[in-house]
Amino acid sequence: MSATNRQIRLAVRPVGEVEPDDWEHCAGPVDEPGQGRFAGRTRVISLDPAMRGWLDDRPSYLPPVGM
Question: Could you tell me which residue, 49 or 11, shows the higher pLDDT?
Answer without folding.
Answer: 11
